Amino acid sequence: MSIALAILLVCLLVALWSLNLVSLPGNWLAAGVTSGYWLLEVGEGRTAIAGEVVVLVILLAALAELVEFLAGALGATKAGGSKLAAVLALLGSIAGALTGAAVGSVLLPIPIVGTVVGALLLGALGSLMGAILGETALGRSSDESWNVGKAAFFGRLLGTLAKSMIGAVAVAVVAVAVCF
Per the structure, how many domains does the chain have? Predict the structure, then answer.
């Protein structure tokens, strides 16, 4: 029974990890589920998780959030963007990612792939549009707004990819912990 629960845990963590791609807190949810598994002592013997693993998963989730935030913020501010542009880029990226997840699965009807590609691209595009809107609202030129928007686009894209890679490491840590 404990092996089946360990397999279920890893499958659930993979599903939660995928939420990172649509701007949802997948790493934090995975850390919560891992903590719950540990607190409830679901695993026995080989499938038990040590407290150190839980701490590591929580630290990885925090690192992933920090990296994503810094990548997006540094992208826009390095190009001279305003705080308004950064806030609108963040809101645009969330709206774009959620829309992209739905649209991507229709336009690219390959299970999971269409959703992920749509969420990543439209999330980054939403960040671009939000940054441009913020800069334009402050009276900046179209060239300045475009440069800030491009920086927000690439910052968001790289930040999401980095966050997802760190989340994948956290899932792998738990998978190894319950298997060995």
Answer: 1
CA dihedral (147, 150, 151, 152) positive or negative: positive
Alpha carbons 44 and 1: distance in angstroms, whole number: 9
- Give me the domain span that covers residue 103: 2-179
pLDDT in tens for each of the 180 residues of the chain?
688 888 999 999 999 998 887 777 899 999 999 999 999 887 677 778 999 999 999 999 999 988 887 887 778 888 888 889 988 988 898 899 889 888 887 887 877 788 888 888 998 999 999 999 999 999 999 999 999 999 999 998 899 889 999 999 999 999 999 988
- One-character DSSP codes across the chain: -HHHHHHHHHHHHHHHHHGGGGTS-HHHHHHHHHHHHHHTT---GGG---HHHHHHHHHHHHHHHHHHHHHHHHHHHHTT--HHHHHHHHHHHHHHHHHHHHHHHHHS-STTHHHHHHHHHHHHHHHHHHHHHHHHHTT--HHHHHHHHHHHHHHHHHHHHHHHHHHHHHHHHHHHHHH-
Under a CB-based contact definition with an 8 Å cutoff, are residues 34 and 13 in contact? yes
CB 60 within 8 A of CB 167: yes
Rounded to 10 degrees, the C-alpha dihedral 72/21/163/160 comes to -30
